[in-house]
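Protocol step 4 of 6: structure prediction from sequence.
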Amino acid sequence: MTKSKLSNALWVLSLFLVASCSASQRDVAEIIFKCHADQPKSIDVLISIVDNTFKLEKFNIGSSKLDNAALISDMSKSSYHRSLVTEHSMTFTHGDSEVIVSDYYSEELDLITKETSVTVQQIGKKEYWLCDDSGFSKLGSIEDF
């Protein structure tokens, strides 16, 4: 009976070891851009990077949600810098629609401005959101491609 309990304990212990090893080998998503705004209508955007692949994890405007980020056909990143101003942006494209996320930093006129924003462009229509204080961006840490 003691042998049976010992073998059961070893079996359970090995199962936990395999499960913990599997969990540690999973790709961990790093959030690189997050935005929430209530005006002109509610928007939530979350972009992450997993194993050098960018993913539009969350894209909600009002009650509309983008459920399948695989619909994104193209993505590009750009950076702009001049004295006292830096801007980084990433554009996700699907058909005639674009989602542009950006961060802007300026020290011009002795005034520090730091903003994250989202712009959605569709056929003939452009909408812009300035993210609230919970938004953040790590776009500057990504090399242009």
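Step 5 (inspection) to follow. Residues 5 and 120 are 62 Å apart (CA to CA).
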